[in-house]
Amino acid sequence: MAQTAQEITPLDYTRYDFKDPETYQVRLHKGLSREIVRKISELKQEPAWMLEYRLRAYEHFVSRPMPDWGPSLAEIDFDAYTYYADPTGKKPERRWEDLPADIKNTFERLGIPKAEREFFGGVGAQYDSGTVYHKIREDLAAKGVIFTDTDTAVREHPELVRKYFGKVIPYNDNKFAALNSAVWSGGSFVYIPPGVDAGIPLQAYFRINAQNVGQFERTLIIADKGAKVHYLEGCTAPIYSTDSLHAAVVEVVAEPSAKIRYTTIQNWSKNVYNLVTKRAVAYEDALVEWVDGNMGSKITMKYPSVYLKGRRARADILSIAFASEGQIIDSGAKAVHSAPETSSKIVAKSIAIRGGQTSYRGLLHVAPGATGVKAAVRCDALLPDELGRSDTYPYNEIHEEDATITHEAVVGKIGEEQIFYLMSRGLSESDAIHLILMGFLAEFAKELPVDYALELNRLIQLEMTGAVG
After folding, report:
1. pLDDT above 70 as % of the chain
2. What residue spans define the domains of the chain?
3. Is it the case that residue 141 has pLDDT exceeding 70?
4. What is the pLDDT of residue 50?
5. Which of 181, 295, 291, 307 is nearest to 247 (CA)?
6. Percent of the chain's residues with pLDDT above 90
7. Pairwise CA distance, residues 435 & 457, whole Å
8. Would you say residue 232 has pLDDT above 70?
9. Are 339 and 315 in contact (CB under 8 A)?
10. Which residues contact 322 (CB under 8 A, 6 or more apart)?
């Protein structure tokens, strides 16, 4: 007798949906104001230039209207959130054993120490507003690799931070970039020196624990000339009856001939607004790869982008979106070709089931003078039942005749003959559908490390529980 998916993998969602007692060394009151922004900067003992940057961003956030496109964000009450909640009130620990027991147990349940021991060259862990743990392997540090939290980088590497911070994504880029710039806390700072190949991936994990708390990490990754790095990121939160807010900013800089891969698997609970700005710049002969997975949240708006500023720069963006009941995932990608002979490839796959909604929203821009550009966009959507919805909003702005551009989009359903064939081979209906879904996502899954691919498979199984039968 064939085993069901439930028998093969125990579907215990408590791995993600658990809460620690809300005991924090520092937790500011709810609401956003200039005083709150000043207090965050004061608690961090930041230099004057960072406080000034925060305050300029706050003024822009207040004056800028909410986006009038995409999913409705009208229910967000910015005064309902706590903008700074630090569980320890001190610098990140370098030894896992020194973490408070409840925080350590949280990340152990999520598999972080095991991942550090077996796979990664460095690990950072953020819990609400505070980075509680950060460590890099000694051999990487000896090569000059910097991998720390962004708060520490402001103190210990001020020249590098000032050179790059806010240059890829200025505070006035959009309303939520302005919000992040005003109240940011934690995140990762990575610098790879010229010619250095980090070799082993670096990982960060972001966890929201408290109710009505916003998380606003700020990540900055720089690969200097000829350098290479792979950065991985995971995110989760427990389920509450009220909403949480996640508004991150990620800036990526690939100097000439550098290579950066940024891999994300986000599994926020279905009461989180996930409103993220991610952008990279790639200079001559550089390569930037986004591998972006969106599995959870109430509403996600996220569009990883690459600005190709140097001749022969390349962008490769691969994303998936999986929306179930009560979820809207509005995601996509942007490739902006500003230099000749640049190339980009965007592959976006989405699954909408049980009333979930997915949207691909993308931009392909070829600037005047960017000759010899090659770009391809492919959007594939799968609707396993009659309740899901998928939309596509592509924008192609081509200002050069000497460009090779392709765009294709396909929306399909699971064929009854596919299910019948697999069931005739002994699979249950739910296992057959799960196998078809994983085949649809295979192009994405094969780009993930083994642990992440297994996790993706497990998350799909969780979402499919109860979807059929």
Report:
1. 77
2. 16-422
3. yes
4. 97
5. 181
6. 51
7. 10
8. yes
9. no
10. 294, 295, 329, 350, 351, 353, 356, 358, 459, 460, 463
Which DSSP state fits 214?
E
pLDDT value at residue 296? 76
Which two three-digit tokens encode residue 345?
A: 């490839």
Res 125: pLDDT: 64
Tokens of 71: 């999913």
**Cβ–Cβ under 8 Å, residues 443 and 349:** yes
Closest CA to 326 of 280, 251, 389, 237: 389
Cβ atoms within 10 A of the Cβ of 29, count? 10
Position 167: which residue type?
Answer: K
Which residue in this structure is represented by tokens 């490839």?
345
* HSE-CB for 350 with a 13 A CA cutoff: 30
Q: d(Cα 79, Cα 246) in Å, to the nearest integer?
A: 14
pLDDT bucket at 133, cuts 50 / 70 / 90: low
Helix (H) or strand (E) holding 134: strand 130-136
The pTM score is: 0.85
| Beta bridge pairs of residue 343 | 314, 374
Helices 48-63 & 175-183 angle (0-180, nearest 10): 150
CA torsion, points 179, 181, 185, 187, in degrees to nearest 10?
Answer: 110
Amino acid, single-letter form, for residue 5: A
Q: Is the model more confident about 457 or about 5?
A: 457
Could you tell me if 448 and 262 are in contact, meaning their C-beta atoms sit under 8 angstroms apart?
A: no
Q: What is the mean pLDDT of residues 296-305?
A: 92
Q: Which amino acid is at 251?
A: E
SS in 3 state form for 155-174? HHCHHHHHHHCCCCCCCCCC
Two structure tokens written together for 338: 């500003």
Distance CA 186, CA 131 (A): 6
246's tokens: 């996640």
SS3 call for 181:
helix
The residues that bridge with 397 in the sheet, in sequence order, are: 365
Q: Starting at the edge strand that comes first in sequence, how are the strands of the sheet with 403-412 ordered?
A: 130-136, 122-127, 202-207, 228-236, 259-267, 287-294, 314-323, 343-352, 373-382, 403-412
Q: Which residues of 335-364 are buried (b: 16+ CB within 10 A; e: fewer)?
A: bbbbbbbbbbbbbbbbbbbbebbbbbbbbb
Where residue 131 falls among pLDDT bands split at 50, 70, 90?
A: low
Ramachandran angles phi, psi of 43, nearest 5°: -60, -30
CA dist 53 to 37, 57, 276, Å? Answer: 10, 6, 19
pLDDT value, residue 215:
83
- In degrees and rounded to multiples of 5, residue 160 shows phi and psi of -65, -45
Q: What is the DSSP code (8-state) at residue 6?
A: H
| Euclidean distance between CA atoms 190 and 120, whole angstroms | 14
Which has the closest alpha carbon to 423: 412, 413, 436, 438?
436
The helix-helix angle for 48-63 and 34-44 (nearest 10°) equals 150
